[in-house]
Design goal:
The protein contains 14 helices and 15 strands. The longest helix is centred in the N-terminal third of the chain and has 17 residues, at 68-84. With 399 residues, it is α/β, with parallel strands linked by helices. It has helices spanning 18-27, 55-58, 61-64, 68-84, 107-117, 128-132, 134-144, 160-174, 191-199, 237-242, 271-281, 297-311, 321-324, 331-345, and strands at residues 3-11, 33-35, 45-48, 93-98, 150-154, 179-186, 225-226, 228-236, 249-258, 288-290, 317-318, 347-348, 369-370, 375-381, 386-393. It is 34% helix and 20% strand. Helix 12 (297-311) links the parallel strand 10 and strand 11. The chain folds into two domains: 3-249, Thiolase/Chalcone synthase (Peroxisomal Thiolase, Chain A, domain 1, 3-Layer(aba) Sandwich); 253-393, 3-Layer(aba) Sandwich (Peroxisomal Thiolase, Chain A, domain 1), CATH 3.40.47. The protein is globular. This is Beta-ketoacyl synthase N-terminal-like domain-containing protein. Keywords: Transferase. Belongs to the thiolase-like superfamily. Beta-ketoacyl-ACP synthases family. Residues 1-394 form the Ketosynthase family 3 (KS3) domain.
């Protein structure tokens, strides 16, 4: 049974829709920026903010009361539904969203904790319980796209939206649902998260854009936090064909696991990532690897290890995080959408800003490469030790 993608939507830094996403990926546009006085000692930091695309929802009181992360998800979901051109009436629908930090970085959330600790009961907003509840985000998105039925929230860190796809595949293949609306949304940038990740020494404080948050470059001192949402619509092949849908590509499989390490330690060997990528690429020939590399040396060296041991550095690698940073729970779905677009438009997006220092043996795409793309493998790693790998193929109709 084939599961195919019939629609997609995205909102990200410098990106308000799919058309702009394609353009930025193809041109290798950096959508990150430096913010001043962001660190604990007034250091600069590199981040990716969404500055456009939410204006219409600020005029709608019901939606404007929702967390920013929810609004991002609604925007991407509505574009995906329009892209799929699907009538969901009388269909069994499943909504699956991957979320990492959710609304915990938002001002209302942060202020409420402070007011509660100070004993200011009257200043606690009635909306706080839903800001604190991760699943309220997904439920709100489902409400505003008028979906009832199966609604699930996956919270496995940065692999969350990739694993949301994994769950959706199971539901579709089992016949429990007819259509899956699968996405990820996160808006994690705050003083609290900046300070917390500074403690773990994984932010590129006081680094310029040509040095910090650069995948596959040993000069990079860390990753760029960003915010984004992405959504895809998945259906069984026969259902998509029956309604004459425009099929964007096939989602072959998703495989996930966990490193199994003590939670306050780091996995520097990457054996579970290696295992997942090996399993999903066995007897397959990806045109390139859409990598999770993000500018943290431990993670990027694991990608290098996978490249060497599985492919002898023959298979090209790239990372869209060089352009978009790491929007936590939504990065997996952004990688999937970028892979589908790569197949559709015939190019491999570049890893911008890197000079390959420390990764000279890898086959890293640094300039947009125009070629036929039929198959893409995707790697994804999350805080907490989860790994997820996906395999995407060009759709070929065979009678």
């Amino acid at each position: 049974m084939k599961i195919v993608c019939t629609g997609y939507g995205v909102i990200a830094p410098n990106t308000t829709n799919i058309e702009q996403y394609v353009s930025n990926l193809e041109k290798g546009v950096c959508s990150l920026e430096i913010v001043e006085c962001a660190g604990p000692n007034n250091e600069t930091n590199i981040v990716g903010f969404v500055k456009e695309g939410l204006e219409q929802y600020e005029l709608d009181r019901k939606i404007n009361r929702l967390p920013r992360v929810t609004k991002l998800g609604i925007v991407a979901a509505k574009e995906a539904m329009n892209s799929a051109n699907i009538d969901i009436e009388d269909k069994r629908i499943g909504v699956f969203f991957g979320i990492s930090l959710g609304a915990s970085g938002e001002e209302l959330y942060q202020n409420t904790i402070k007011e509660a600790n100070d004993g200011n009961y009257k200043k606690i907003p009635i909306t706080f319980t839903h800001y604190a509840n991760m699943h309220s985000i997904t439920a709100s998105i489902a409400h505003f796209i008028d979906v009832k039925g199966v609604v699930k929230t996956i919270t496995t860190g940065c692999t969350a939206s990739m694993e949301a796809i994994e769950d959706a595949l199971l539901y579709l293949k089992s016949g429990k649902i007819d259509v899956a609306i699968v996405g990820g949304t996160d808006s994690p940038i705050s003083i609290a998260t900046t300070y917390a990740f500074t403690k773990t020494k994984v932010l590129p404080l006081n680094q310029e854009l040509n040095l910090g948050a650069v995948p596959f470059c040993e000069r990079s001192l860390g990753f760029a936090m960003s915010e984004a949402a992405g959504v895809i619509v998945l259906e069984r092949e026969e259902d998509a064909i029956k309604r004459k849908a425009h099929i964007k590509g096939e989602v072959v499989d998703v495989i996930s696991n966990n490193d199994g390490n003590y939670i306050f330690s780091l996995d520097i060997e990457g054996e579970q990532m290696l295992k997942a990528l090996k399993e999903i690429t066995t007897n397959r020939n990806p045109d390139y690897i859409n990598s999770q590399a993000l500018g943290i040396q431990v993670n990027d060296k694991i990608e290098e290890k996978c490249s060497k041991q599985l492919f002898e550095h023959r298979i090209p690698y790239t990372s869209i995080k060089s352009m978009y940073g790491n929007p936590f729970g939504s990065i997996g779905i952004l990688q999937v959408i970028s892979s589908l677009l790569s197949i559709q438009y015939g190019f491999i997006p570049p890893t911008i800003r890197t000079n390959k220092q420390g990764y000279e043996n890898m086959n890293i795409i640094r300039e947009t490469t125009y070629q036929e793309v039929k198959e893409v493998a995707i790697t994804n790693h999350g805080y907490g030790g989860n790994n997820a790998c996906a395999y995407i193929k060009k759709y070929d109709y065979i009678k």
